[in-house]
Design brief:
The complex is a heterodimer of chains A (324) and B (85). With 324 residues, chain A is an alpha/beta fold. Chain A is 34% helix and 27% strand. The termini of chain A are far apart. Chain B has helices at residues 16-27, 47-51, 70-81; strands at 2-7, 32-37, 40-43, 60-66. Classes of the chains: A alpha/beta (324), B alpha+beta (85). Chains A and B meet through helix 10 of A and helix 1 of B.
């Protein structure tokens, strides 16, 4: 389930920041906001729109600005800012705070962390890490396999052959990510990452055989810890009534956590080699993302040919005279 | 077997998408259906075959159907080819 907050203790540990105020208990400081603030405006005295839920990041600009002030001014400005009570402050570029500032932080019980990283890097790593931790999550039923670098989610009714197909793909050199239950994490606006729950990681249930361990049977090269979900292949019993996609001009999408994922429904019939179909779908999807769509190219060629024939017709050329 | 000459009235001719619909229509019948155009003979149920013809609006084709539902097949195919969409 999605987390609502991270603690500053986790931020400090994961990103390797030093706590300059060890008497403040970082495990009790909760951060709910996914972004940060650089407090230059606040130090200059402008407090409208000051979002006090954010971690404050101080870099060279703020530090140099404070140095231009007199001791009294500096204490007053910093104290005013701390009186607004934000979760914590991070000093980038190894900036060492003077004792009077640390005393203010301790007075308000607000932690001060320090790192040698550049200010830009601190901003990026904090936002990235917090967003990852607070990402929306869901769980899906299916099999996730990495095929030529495309994360393919195979779905379909139980017993249709998802796991068998995944094993065949593994034997053809692709990598299993998760079987049966896939934990999905939404990263940013349009990236879905899938992984297996730790307990069942890299295990596959094969009907009639039982549970098999893909990683120990076929080795590390046959598995992956996590993978993006780039495409969904839905396996379905062949139904003579349904019209399956013949051209691939129209893309169908499935919505997962608000991200649209390209989906194909593949009818199952004896004699169809699913692994090869999925490999082809994966590599074709990659080619589309590289800018070439075979169905569209054919469509354009046919239209061009029709245009020529139409001109012949208007110029009164007989149909059978044109034959090459 | 029934043979019939049909003039295509589809506004854009047999472009990729109309071909897909045409092939779907033809596939509903059990009879074998052949489209003859500029001395080529193509199975009406084959999407790539039909696509390779590039038939424009106003052109003529001969459709031949052979099988238990040949009359319905010709009628169905003609109905689509002469629709204006």
């Amino acid at each position: 389930m999605a987390r609502k907050y991270v603690t500053l203790a986790e931020v400090a540990e994961k990103l390797g920041y030093t706590n300059l105020t060890p008497t403040v208990d970082l495990t009790k400081v909760k951060v709910y906001h996914r972004s940060i603030n650089r407090p230059a405006f606040q130090l200059a005295g402008f407090y409208d729109y000051f979002d006090t839920k954010r971690i404050q990041v101080v870099g060279r600009a703020e530090n140099e600005y404070l140095k231009t002030l007199t001791f009294e001014e500096r204490v007053e400005r910093v104290e005013k800012m701390f009186s607004y009570k934000f979760p914590g402050i991070i000093l980038a570029r190894g900036i060492q705070p003077p004792p009077e500032i640390l005393n203010i932080a301790l007075k308000y019980d607000i932690p001060v962390l320090s790192t040698d990283h550049s200010t830009a890097l601190v901003i990026v790593e904090i936002i990235r890490w917090i967003n990852e931790q607070l990402a929306e999550t869901t769980s899906l039923h299916g099999v996730l396999v990495d095929v030529f670098g495309e994360g393919i989610l195979i779905t379909g009714a139980s017993g249709i052959g998802k796991s068998e197909t995944a094993i065949e793909l593994v034997k053809r050199g692709h990598r299993l990510v998760a079987d049966d239950v896939i934990e999905v994490l939404k990263i940013g606006e349009d990236l879905l990452m899938g992984k297996a729950p730790e307990l069942t990681r890299h295990l596959v249930e094969l009907r009639g055989i039982g549970v098999v361990d893909i990683k120990s049977l076929y080795g590390v090269e046959s598995v992956m810890e996590f993978s993006p979900i780039n495409m969904i292949i839905n396996l379905e019993e062949w139904d003579g009534q349904s019209n399956y996609d013949r051209l691939g001009l129209n893309e169908d999408y499935t919505d997962i956590l608000g991200v649209k994922v390209v989906s194909h429904t593949i009818p199952i019939r004896p004699g169809r080699n699913l692994a090869i179909i999925i490999e082809t779908a994966a590599v074709n999807n990659r080619q589309k993302n590289m800018g070439y769509n075979a169905a569209q190219a054919l469509c354009d060629r046919v239209s061009e040919e029709i245009h020529k024939h139409k001109e012949d017709l208007e110029n009164g050329v007989e149909q059978d005279e044109e034959e090459e | 077997m029934i043979k019939k000459e049909i003039t295509i009235e589809l506004a854009k001719g047999l472009e990729a998408r109309p071909v897909a619909v045409f092939v779907q229509t033809a596939s509903q019948y059990e009879s074998q259906i052949i489209v003859e155009y500029r001395e080529k003979r193509v199975n009406a149920k084959s999407i790539m075959g039909m696509m390779s013809l590039g038939i424009a609006q106003g052109e003529k084709v001969v459709v031949a159907a052979d099988g238990p539902d040949e009359a319905e097949a010709i009628a169905g195919v003609q109905k689509y080819l002469t629709s204006r969409e």
